[in-house]
Design a protein that fits this description.
Largest sheet of chain C: none
Number of helices of chain B: 24
Order of helices and strands of chain C: HHHHHHHHHHHH
Helix content of chain C: over 70%
Chains: A alpha/beta (276), B alpha/beta (605), C mainly alpha (313), D alpha+beta (505)
Number of helices of chain C: 12
Strand content of chain C: under 5%
Shape of chain B: elongated
Radius of gyration of chain B: 33 Å
Radius of gyration of chain C: 24 Å
Helix content of chain B: 55-70%
Number of strands of chain C: 0
Structural class of chain C: mainly alpha
Distance between the termini of chain C: 6 Å
Structural class of chain B: alpha/beta
Largest sheet of chain B: 6 strands, mixed
Strand content of chain B: 5-15%
Oligomer: heterotetramer
Distance between the termini of chain B: 35 Å
Chain lengths: 276, 605, 313, 505
């Protein structure tokens, strides 16, 4: 299998405040691959480094070691200018639909901006905008509105449309549904799966929610304290976890069934008492 | 896309249809409109000075020296040199306006340009420019102006140019800090990922967003520049023959005891000019905040307790039936919460809610965002902002009615009978005080400081904090989110409340921590026999903790029932819909990644 | 902590070095005929040259600056060209005057703006509007007019304070206070408005924060929340304004000194600059930069103390 | 005070005037109820106290710490000082001074003829006074109580100069020492109290009971503040922080009779546009006498004197109206006549006028606009440079300006007035004519009874030649607190003799 994205021994340490003060490493040698059309779910608790990994792929954080290869091209350390052509192939959907859309721009401006930046005429970009709105299930009159006029789920659709504008090969999804309501969450996930089926785009899907991961991922990678502790097909990892951390993660997530949850709680308590 | 969401768009956007711009909003404010008119009138008087005055501003007539106001041809009188005060005021307006324009213009241009660069480009640029602007701030500007006066010839325009540079640091700081804030916004990241050039990001995203505060600062800079010019002229720096408010004041100051009015005229006009500028700036800021308010309101819908006053709960009707049973810990009947809109219409967010919590019972209050669940919880706690209009037939805790209680009585209840656990652990601790001191404060009413400390240390140990002494002395930023939530729980149960209201107590936490906190809550509830009202949108949490569930939607209760019943046999359509959207643990994505096709595609490239 | 203070002071010294250098070279560029100004009476070329030699003005510019720096390191700031007074004693005599006025004025400003800001933030509505009106009015009210009114009422009519001049604190504390009270009030007037607005704004922000609600949920009194918790957290941004205020008040002291005939630092600096009295200009520059550095350091230390997060370890 | 008072500059030590000076102080010793402190103000601080180097406004400070060879009393007469008597040789070229014995400098050294010689020689050397003492060829001290001044040409104003700053005598040991600039060692009626003095802002004088004339100076302490702002000094006067000040006529009523004494000063100074560049070095037009005359005709003296400066009189002469050289007829030489002035300008070849730069100082500020306008009416376009007063004379000597407005304080004698008007700051380019030189020489050498007429001829010549454009001679009201007895002097701001203690009722 030819990987679309290959991450090899990626390390990252944020610059310290003083001259020599070093902060702890956030990424400690991460290696993973994403195939074309595949969704890789990246799970971990806050501070595990999963968001940093996504930002490193997007060029928003600077790795201190290792490499990121995208479609055969080393994109580990590109200048902003070198990175610009990459926008056509690599896109992002952020967690917070409230801050990922510029509040003072109309939806049409938000959506046409990446297209125009690639040199497409304004008239053509208008057509693309209405196609995109249709694709994410928003009415075409949404183009003339501002982000604040939409609900969270609708905004996240706008963010998805923006990511799709340039027909990318990989979209980094950083917790795209965690800020959404339950019913909206399911619909947005369905939309993402549909889009993947239609376009063959790959997702690096970052989340802390195991049920979301199950829903959308082909494969799952589990991060813990800057390291990858377990990788594998979603069914395997979520049913027969190998790593202890993955196990505790699975047991900790409360399930939406009072009786099942009581069992899980008891199991967890036993495990903890055994450990102690 | 469901039809409900499309409906929502229409519904939400309806009042927004006539989306008035900031300028229009500004003109709608009486203060904004008046100050704008005053400003325009003053500026026009200056621009067309020669049409409004009978004499040249520098023309002296010895016949009218110190003539009183009303002298023919000299409306405001003449000064000590026999010059027309009115004519001089008109010319002074021009000098002031030009000074304001130059000073504020230079400061804004320089400050904005370098502020953008420093905030956006990187740490090194930031360090260098910040250092340079700090230098500018320490530099004695007057020295430079005087030293350079042979070069500038004392022309006030050149002087104001120099002072513009010295005013620039304030704009620089403002813009830089705004940009640093905006730079970390996700939409700027998104723009970068979208392949936008730095210039485009700066001009379109960053500058566009920070322009409001810059425009406001311009009004202050202009006043400052006008003040500086008149101050310098008062001191006699520069040409003394150019009429300006400062030189007029200086002339009049000499004669203040003989002709005090001569001092009043320039002062009044200058004050009018500057106050119009400032009030216009203020009105613009208000217009800008108004424009931003909807987004903020949404983001902080629950957190808008921007007041220390407590909202009293009003009885809906006199003699409402007392349905609170002796067994019930919390009884709520027909509770509504509304907020008056700017157009005077009351917008209801909670509408006729009734619910009960029995002693020792955990009741889940479930609903999506905007369902009114948090507003319901806060109205029970008496923590809604004063704008809220709260009414209820019955609102009783442990047999004690909250209706018509004043804020002091409510506060007493909050300290003892009823307690609260918030959602976001970090933001709910005062960053400036140690954990211990904030927790002790709540107990000080009933016991000595020593006792309170002992109680809190004991509690900290009880909520699972390994080193209570150390945590007691720590500041909030020194502990983790999970610890902070334990601290808040300790704070809530410190007074051994009968009713605990928890607002999404685990939403901000990682799943592993969430599980521990849930365990802790259950244990404490068992020990203390508290009734708990648990506000949440997480059905996993509901399943874990709750005995009964109240489902809310659009401010109303749609269904109430035992936890199993809700999960297994939801009666209401909405509840069914909610239960159905729960991502099933058993469905795992099985369709294979279509990488085979893609590989072919890759290979043909 | 001490390392931090020393480092900041070190950075301040670099700033002093650069700012005085700029002043020095700009003054030279402006080419003020110092010798002619001093000698006056149709001085001959020879006399001018002799005086220039005496003042060291015939040396290369760089050397003159280095000489000055060396002098400063030995504690010698030079002698005024015009009043023959050693610059150090000149500053020592005048700085306390201006500092007295500025510091007392800052205390007024602080106290009044906290009262106004807290009142406006906690009692929103009509009172807020009235307070804002007062604040705006005070901002635009001409200081000169206020000065003359105060002098007329308190000095001339009531005769409870002097109209001009300065009495040193050592000489008579009550005389000192009487001699600076009016100037300090006049100087305060503009700052109160901006600082009160600042405090009001950050207090309103602070009162909207989550922890305020949590504190209330524990039954803590409104007064304690407002004055102990919210005010302390709101004071951070206000303190930054405070340091800017100090700088601006120090600058505007010149006008006050004129009206009240105070022998202060501003007048000293102004006269020196007009005449091209280079040693005084440099001394004045040095001290004003140092003052700004120290005030900024104090403000940072205080706001560090107020905000445990940025507290220097 | 609104600069209505004159500016003493006859001795080049010019400055803004707040004080008037004179003599005939009460010789009675101060009563026990006498005020201990006299509070005065000056507008500009002195640059230093070194003998011969004194410049800056008011000379009261200098003449208080240094005794002078002679003294000038309130009537403007030369009276004994360090020299208890003096005599001229018949040819008026040798002045012999008999030095008083028993006087001591504040460092304990005796005041003798050698000190007098050293001080006078020092003053002659310094640029500030060298021009004014240029008539002196030598000074010698044949013995400890005799000093002899030899002159190149007779100088009728010499005695007056020796009674002023130029006659100041300091201790020879520290005469030129650096310390003397702030720490004067003299034998005057007062000593400088350094502990209560801040150079540039407050000067405190302590009475020197050892001075031979101590009884003329009843105040234990004299505190002299530098107050630049006229309103501030008026405030200080009203609150009693100052004991003396000049005010505008319309302000007199603000000082209640119960607390203040008021009066009107003698003519103190002449305010004139000094047409200094009579050789046309930087303003060629001024070389032409017709241009200078045109300027004289363009100025509306009587209006300026009555409207701009209440209480002044228009004048066309540089001498005091109280002196013998003054002639009322001369004030009709150049009546206000714009057309006539224009005609003269055209005749001189300046029909289109010309542009000049003038300095604008605190002293001239009140007149600047009017002067610019009136000169503008005959085609002379005036632009102003703002010049701080301290720099004014330096700039003028530096030859920066062809013409400027300034006051020249009257000295009490025609000789000083006219010698002063033709030298120093009022003749920075040193212009002269053979006729003037001759007229001056004749007048200076004239016997006392003929001097009035002789200087009258000089005066007439200066008026005819439009040497300057005099505008007004100023008098003005003064105010003192009622505990002070003030005697308006002929020569203002010279010394503390006009100040005495009011008789208590």
């Amino acid at each position: 299998m030819t990987a679309l994205l290959t991450i090899d021994d990626l390390r990252l340490r944020y610059p310290g405040r003083g001259f020599r003060s070093a902060s702890p490493e956030v990424l400690r040698g991460i290696s993973l691959e994403i195939a074309p059309g595949e969704t890789l779910g990246l799970v971990g608790e806050s501070g595990s480094g999963k968001t940093t990994l996504g930002r490193a792929v997007l060029g928003l954080a600077n790795p201190t070691g290792g490499s990121i290869t995208f479609q055969g091209e080393d994109i580990t350390r590109l200048s902003q200018k070198q990175r610009r052509p990459l926008a056509k192939r690599l896109q992002v959907i952020f967690q917070d639909p409230y801050t990922s859309l510029n509040p003072v721009l109309q939806i049409s401006e938000i959506l046409s901006e990446p297209i125009v930046a690639q040199g497409v005429s304004a008239a053509d970009s208008r057509k693309t905008v209405s196609r995109l709105l249709d694709q994410v299930g928003l009415p075409s009159n949404a183009a003339q509105r501002y982000p604040r006029e939409f609900s969270g789920g609708q905004r996240q659709r706008v963010a998805i449309a923006r990511a799709l504008a340039l027909e990318p090969r990989l979209i980094v999804c950083d917790e795209p549904v965690s800020a959404l309501d339950l019913s909206t969450q399911a619909r947005v996930l369905d939309l993402l799966v549909d889009i993947q089926r239609n376009t063959g785009v790959s997702y690096l899907f970052i989340t802390h929610d195991l049920s979301v991961v199950r829903h959308i991922s082909h494969r799952v990678a589990v991060m813990y304290k800057g390291e990858l502790v377990e990788t594998g097909p979603v069914a395997e990892v979520t049913t027969t976890p190998q790593h202890e951390y993955t196990r505790s993660l699975l047991l900790s997530a409360p399930t939406a069934d009072p009786d099942l949850q009581r069992e899980r709680r008891a199991l967890r308590r036993r495990l903890r008492e055994a450990a102690a | 896309m469901t039809t409900t969401e499309i409906d929502n768009i229409a519904a939400v956007s309806a009042p927004e249809k006539k989306r008035s711009g900031v300028i229009r909003r500004l003109l709608k404010k009486p203060l904004g409109l008046i100050s704008l008119i005053v400003l325009i009138v003053i500026v026009l008087l200056g621009v067309f000075a020669q049409f409004f005055s009978a004499h040249d501003a520098t023309f002296t007539s010895l016949q009218v020296v110190n003539a009183p106001p009303g002298t023919p041809g000299y409306i405001l009188g003449a000064d000590q040199n026999g010059r027309d005060i009115w004519a001089r005021i008109l010319v002074s307006i021009n000098v002031s306006v030009i000074s304001g324009l130059i000073g504020a213009g230079v400061a804004t241009l320089v400050g904005t340009l370098f502020g953008l660069l420093a905030g956006y480009v990187g740490k090194k640029t930031d360090a260098i420019t910040s250092w340079t602007f700090n230098l500018l701030m320490t530099f004695p500007a007057l020295v430079l102006v005087l030293v350079l006066s042979p070069v500038t010839g004392g022309a006030y325009q050149a002087t104001m140019f120099i002072f513009g540079l010295f005013l620039a640091p304030s704009t620089y700081r403002l813009v830089r800090n705004l940009v640093v804030g905006v730079k970390n916004e996700l939409y700027v990241d998104a723009a970068r990922v979208s392949g936008l050039s730095n210039r485009r990001i700066l001009s379109r995203h960053v500058l566009y967003v920070v322009r409001g505060p810059i425009i406001i600062s311009v009004s202050f800079l202009a006043t400052a520049a006008i003040g500086i010019q008149s101050g310098l002229a008062f001191l006699g720096v520069g040409s003394t023959l150019t009429p300006s408010f400062g030189s007029m004041t200086s002339d009049a100051f000499i004669n203040v005891y003989s002709y005090p009015l001569q001092l009043v005229w320039p002062s009044v006009v200058q004050a009018l000019l500057t106050s119009a500028l400032i009030l216009l700036g203020n009105a613009y800021r208000d217009a800008l905040t108004d424009a931003e308010r909807p987004t903020r309101a949404e983001r902080r819908a629950a957190a808008s307790a921007a007041a220390t006053r407590t909202r009293m709960v009003r009885a809906r009707t006199a003699g409402a039936p007392d349905v609170s049973s002796a067994r019930s810990l919390l009884t709520v009947r027909n509770l509504s919460v509304g907020y008056a809109q700017t157009d005077g219409v009351l917008k209801s967010v909670v509408d006729g809610v009734s619910l009960d919590v029995a002693p020792g019972e955990i009741v889940g209050l479930v609903g999506e965002s905007g369902s009114g669940k948090t507003q319901t919880a806060f109205s029970i706690l008496g923590l809604l902002p004063p704008e809220a209009q709260v009414e209820a037939d019955v609102l009783t805790i442990a047999g004690d009615s909250l209706v018509a209680k004043d804020s002091r009585e409510l506060r007493k209840m909050r300290g003892s009978v009823i307690a609260y656990i918030p959602q976001e652990p970090m933001s709910n601790l005062d960053p400036s005080f140690t954990i211990g001191s904030q927790l002790v404060e709540g107990l000080m009413a009933g016991m000595s400081r020593k006792e309170a400390k002992a109680t809190i240390l004991q509690l900290l140990a009880r909520v699972g904090i390994a080193d209570p002494e150390r945590t007691f002395a720590s500041y909030p930023h020194q502990i983790s989110g999970g610890m902070a939530q334990r601290v808040l729980i300790a704070g809530a149960v410190a007074s051994r409340p009968k009713l605990l209201i928890a607002d999404e107590p685990t939403t901000a936490l990682d799943v592993t921590i969430q599980a521990e906190i849930l365990d802790l809550l259950r244990d404490l509830q068992g020990e203390l026999g508290m009734g708990v009202l648990l506000v949440t949108h997480n059905f996993g949490v509901v399943a874990d903790l709750c005995d009964r569930v109240v489902v809310m939607r659009n401010g109303q209760v749609v269904e109430t029932g035992k936890v199993r019943a809700i999960f297994h046999e939801p009666a209401h359509e909405y509840t069914q819909q909610l239960i159905a959207s729960i991502l099933d643990e058993n469905t795992v994505r099985t369709d294979p990644a279509p990488h085979s096709d893609m590989r072919e595609l890759e290979e043909t490239k | 902590m001490i390392v931090y203070i020393l480092r900041r002071l070190g950075a301040g010294l670099v700033l002093v070095f650069i700012v005085t250098a700029i002043t020095f070279f700009l003054t030279h560029a402006a080419n003020i005929p110092v010798a002619n100004n001093i000698l006056g009476a149709g001085a001959t070329q020879d006399q001018v040259a002799a005086l220039n030699a005496k003042l060291g003005l015939d040396q290369p510019i760089i050397e003159q600056y280095i000489n000055w720096l060396v002098g400063v390191l030995h504690g010698d700031l030079g002698i005024s060209y015009f009043t023959s007074e050693p610059v150090a004693s000149g500053i020592a005599a005048r700085l306390p005057v201006t500092l007295s006025v500025v510091v007392v004025s800052l205390i007024f400003t602080l106290v009044l703006s906290v009262i106004l800001g807290v009142a406006a933030a906690s009692k929103r509505g009509p009172l807020d509007v009235v307070l804002q009106g007062i604040a705006t009015l005070s901002f635009i009210f001409p200081a000169i007019l206020l000065g003359i009114i105060l002098v007329y009422v308190f000095a001339i009519t009531l005769q409870i304070v002097p109209a001009v001049g300065y009495t040193s604190l050592a000489e008579s504390p009550s005389g000192w206070f009487a001699s600076i009270i009016l100037p300090a009030i006049v100087l305060s007037i503009a700052g109160i408005a901006s600082l009160a607005a600042q405090i009001r704004g950050s207090l309103i922000d602070e009162l909207g924060r989550d922890y305020v609600r949590t504190l209330r949920s524990r039954g803590i009194s409104d007064m304690s929340i407002l004055l102990k918790h919210a005010l302390r957290n709101a004071s951070g941004p206000a303190f930054t304004t405070f340091s800017l205020l100090f700088i601006s008040l120090f600058g505007s002291a010149l006008f006050i000194e004129k009206i009240f005939a105070l022998p202060g630092f501003g007048t000293y600096a102004y006269q020196a600059t007009i005449q091209g009295d280079l040693p005084v200009m440099l001394g004045v520059t040095l001290f004003s930069v140092l003052l700004v550095v120290i005030v900024n350091l104090i403000v940072d230390l205080v706001s560090g103390w107020l905000n445990p997060k940025v507290r220097v370890s | 005070m609104k600069y209505t008072h004159g500016l003493r500059a006859a001795a080049a030590a010019a400055g803004a005037v707040l004080l008037l000076a004179g003599c005939s102080a009460p010789s009675s010793s101060p009563s026990s109820a006498a005020p201990q402190t006299l509070n005065l103000s000056i507008q500009a601080p002195p640059t230093n106290f070194t003998v011969g180097d004194w410049s800056g406004g008011d000379s009261t400070l200098f003449t208080s710490v240094y005794d002078s060879i002679l003294k000038t009393n309130v009537k403007g007469e030369a009276t004994p000082g360090i020299a208890e008597s003096w005599s001229y040789s018949p040819d008026k070229l040798v002045l012999t001074l008999k030095i008083r014995t028993g006087q001591k400098f504040s460092d304990g050294e005796p005041v003798d003829a050698a000190a007098v010689v050293a001080s006078l020689k020092q003053t002659m050397k310094e640029p500030s006074y060298s021009a004014q003492l240029a008539t002196i060829s030598d000074v010698t001290a044949p013995d400890a109580t005799t000093a002899v001044i030899t002159l190149k040409t007779p100088d009728a104003s010499l005695l007056s100069k020796l009674g002023g700053v130029q006659g100041g005598v300091g201790a020879p040991k520290v005469l030129t020492a650096k310390s003397s600039s702030l720490d004067p060692v003299g034998s005057g009626p007062y000593t400088l109290d350094k502990s209560a003095t801040t150079a540039g802002s407050v000067y405190t004088l302590k009475r020197n009971p050892g001075n031979w004339d101590a009884s003329s100076y009843p105040f234990e302490t004299v505190k002299i503040r530098v107050i630049q702002d006229p309103t501030a000094s008026q405030n200080a006067l009203k609150t009693g922080q100052l004991d003396f000040g000049g005010v505008n006529p319309d302000q007199v009523s603000q000082f209640p009779k119960s607390q203040f004494t008021t009066g009107t000063s003698l003519p103190q100074a002449v305010g004139a546009i000094w047409l200094a560049d009579r050789d046309g070095k930087i303003v060629p037009a001024l070389k032409d006498v017709r241009v200078r005359q045109a300027i004289n005709m363009a100025v509306d003296r009587s209006s300026i004197a009555t409207k701009l400066v209440a209480g002044a009189h228009g004048t066309e002469q540089l001498v005091s109206p109280t002196g013998a050289a003054y002639s009322a007829d001369l004030d009709k030489t150049y009546p206000f006549d714009v057309d006539g002035a224009k005609k003269l300008m055209a005749e001189a070849g300046y029909a289109d006028g010309f542009s000049v730069k003038m300095p604008s100082t605190v002293v001239s500020q009140a007149y600047d606009a009017t002067i610019a306008q009136e000169l503008g009416a005959i085609g002379i376009k005036v632009t102003y440079d703002t010049v701080p007063f301290q720099d004014f004379f330096a700039k003028v000597y530096g030859g920066t300006y062809g013409l400027y407005f300034m006051y020249n304080g009257f000295s009490g004698d025609d000789a000083s007035d006219l010698n002063g008007s033709t030298s120093g700051a009022f003749n920075p380019y040193g212009t002269t004519t053979p006729e003037l030189t001759e007229l001056l020489a004749k007048a200076n050498a004239a016997p006392a009874d003929k001097q009035g007429a002789a200087f009258g001829a000089v005066n007439k010549y200066l008026v005819d030649q439009a040497w300057a454009a005099p505008i007004l001679s100023s008098t003005g009201p003064w105010v003192t607190t009622s505990r002070i007895k003030y005697t308006p002097p002929v020569t203002p701001s010279l010394n503390l003799l006009p100040f005495g203690v009011a008789a208590s009722n």
